[in-house]
Specification:
14 helices; globular; 13 strands; seven-stranded mixed beta sheet; Aspartate Aminotransferase, domain 2; single chain; Aspartate Aminotransferase, domain 1; 38% helix
Length: 435
C-alpha cells in the first residue's frame, strides 16, 4: 500500500519518538491506521491543510476539544503577537496572571482563589496535591478521566479493569508506583450508591469527578454527590477540563447549580494555547502554601493572555449558545440520516461535543470505514464532533451531504453481510503499544 507523506513521516517519527507523537488521542491508529493525514501545515477556522496541501474540514475534535473559537482566531492571535513582542517570560511576573484570576473568580462566585498551570494533567495533579494537603484522609474516589498520573492509573493496580468504564480499556500500570495501591476507588456516573458504598467502606478524603461526559446527570446526581461530600467531609473536585466553557460559559456545574470545593479547567480556556486553571475555596487553596508546587513555565505570559482574550471573546459573542445550536444541528443530522436508511446508532455527549456510535458488534470496523469515506470527501471525521464557531451553516451543509452518502454505503454493506472495504487496519479503541 502506498503511504502518503504524513504516514511516511510517522514511520520515521516512531523510530525516535515513543509511539510517534505526544498524545494518544492524536495518534492515527485511533482514527484511520496507515491513511490518516497525521500532520498539518496550516489551520484556519475549522479547516486544516496536511503535508500534501490537501484541505479538510475538522469534524474530528478541533484540537481534542480545545479550539472552540476556531483555529488561528484573529482576536487571540493579535493579542499574542503583541505579547511576544514585549516578551513572554522574564525574571518578573506577568500582571495578566492576576487579571485572569479575577476573571475566573468573577465567573465562579463560590471560589476564592485561583492557580494556573499549562496542561489539564498538571491541573489534576496540583488539585489532588492541594486537596490531600487539606484533607485528613488521603484516599480518593473518582469518576471520569483525570489524566496520566500515577494516582489515577494506580486504580488498575488492584483491578486491571477499574478504569475500563471511565474512558479507555486496557490502560497499563507499567511504571506506576504501587504505593497508591488500595487508596484509589472508581465509582460510576449517575450511580450514587456506587459512591456511597465506597465512602462507607474506605476513609475517602477526596472526591474528584467530571460533572458530565457522555450523559447528563439524572435524578439530582450532582446534588447527591455534593451532600455525600458534606456528610463525610470530603473535598469535592469537579474536573471540567473537557466540559468547561463548551455548553455553558464557566462550566457544566454552573448550569446544574452545584458548586464543588475545587474545580479545574483546561483545553478551551486558551483556545489551543497552553493554560489550565485550578480554582477553589480559600481554606483549601491556601494549603498550596504548605506543600511544594512550582514550575517555571507556569509563569509564561502567553497562556494568561490567550485565556483572557478567549474568555472575553466567549462572553462578548455568546459563544456557548452558538456552539450548542450547531451541535444540536449535527445531532439531528445524524438522527435523521440514520433513520432514513435504517442505520442503528447512538448519540450522546454535550450538545457542543456530540458523540456518535454505531450499534453493531463490528462498531469499530464501521467507525473506521466512516472515517475513511468521510476523509475522501474532505472531512476529518470520527465518533466525536467537537464544535467550533467556525462550523458555519455552509460547512455543516457540506458535512450533511457527505454523511448522507456514507451512511447509505454503510447500510448497504451491512445488509449484504460483506466485510467493509477498508484500505488499512481497523482503528484502535483501547490503549495499545503503538510502535
Amino acid at each position: 500500500m502506498k503511504l502518503n507523506k504524513s504516514q511516511k513521516l510517522l514511520r520515521k517519527a516512531k523510530k525516535i519518538i515513543p509511539g510517534g507523537n505526544q498524545l494518544l488521542s492524536k495518534r492515527s491508529e485511533m482514527f484511520l491506521p496507515n491513511i490518516w493525514p497525521n500532520y498539518y501545515k496550516k489551520s484556519v477556522g475549522c479547516k486544516i491543510w496536511d503535508l500534501e496541501n490537501k484541505s479538510y474540514y475538522d469534524f474530528a475534535g478541533m484540537g481534542v476539544t480545545a479550539c472552540s473559537l476556531g483555529y488561528s482566531n484573529r482576536t487571540i492571535n493579535k493579542a499574542l503577537i503583541k505579547t511576544f513582542k514585549n516578551g513572554s517570560l522574564t525574571t518578573l511576573n506577568s500582571y495578566e496572571e492576576y487579571e485572569l484570576a479575577k476573571i475566573f473568580l468573577n465567573i465562579h462566585k463560590w471560589a476564592d482563589m485561583a492557580k494556573f498551570c499549562k496542561s489539564g494533567g498538571e491541573a489534576c495533579m496540583v488539585a489532588i496535591r492541594i486537596a490531600r494537603a487539606y484533607s485528613i484522609n488521603e484516599n480518593i474516589a473518582f469518576c471520569g478521566y483525570h489524566g496520566w498520573h500515577d494516582w489515577y492509573l494506580s486504580a488498575n493496580l488492584q483491578n486491571k479493569k477499574s478504569l475500563d468504564k471511565q474512558l479507555l480499556t486496557g490502560l497499563s500500570t507499567s511504571g506506576v508506583s504501587k504505593s497508591f495501591l488500595g487508596s484509589i476507588f472508581p465509582f460510576l456516573y449517575n450511580d450514587i450508591k456506587s459512591l456511597e458504598k465506597i465512602i462507607k467502606k474506605n476513609k475517602i478524603g477526596i472526591i474528584i469527578m467530571e460533572p458530565m461526559r457522555s450523559s447528563p446527570p439524572k435524578d439530582n446526581f450532582l446534588k447527591k454527590v455534593r451532600l455525600l461530600a458534606n456528610r463525610y467531609k470530603c473535598v469535592l473536585i469537579f474536573d471540567e477540563i473537557t466540559s468547561g466553557f463548551h455548553d455553558y460559559y464557566g462550566g457544566i456545574h454552573l448550569k446544574y447549580k452545584v458548586n464543588p470545593d475545587m474545580a479545574i479547567f483546561g483545553k478551551s480556556i486558551g483556545n489551543g494555547y497552553p493554560i489550565s486553571s485550578i480554582i477553589g475555596k480559600k481554606k483549601i487553596m491556601n494549603k498550596a502554601q504548605d506543600t511544594f508546587i512550582s514550575s517555571t513555565m507556569w509563569t509564561d505570559r502567553a497562556g494568561f493572555v490567550a485565556s483572557i482574550e478567549t474568555l472575553k471573546f466567549m462572553k462578548k459573542n455568546n459563544v456557548q449558545k452558538k456552539l450548542v445550536k450547531i451541535g444540536k444541528n449535527i445531532k439531528s443530522i445524524w438522527k435523521m440520516e440514520a433513520k432514513n436508511v435504517g442505520l442503528k446508532i447512538s448519540i450522546s455527549g454535550q450538545d457542543s461535543m456530540p458523540y456518535l456510535s454505531f450499534d453493531y458488534k463490528n462498531n469499530l470496523e464501521i467507525s473506521t470505514f466512516f472515517t475513511q469515506e468521510m476523509l475522501k470527501k474532505g472531512f476529518l471525521a470520527g465518533n466525536l464532533a467537537s464544535i467550533s464557531i467556525s462550523h458555519n451553516l455552509h460547512i455543516v451543509k457540506k458535512y450533511h451531504f457527505a454523511l448522507r452518502t456514507v451512511f447509505k454505503k454503510i447500510i448497504l454493506i451491512l445488509r449484504s453481510n460483506k466485510k467493509f472495504p477498508l484500505k488499512g487496519p481497523i482503528k484502535h479503541a483501547t490503549f495499545r503499544r503503538l510502535t
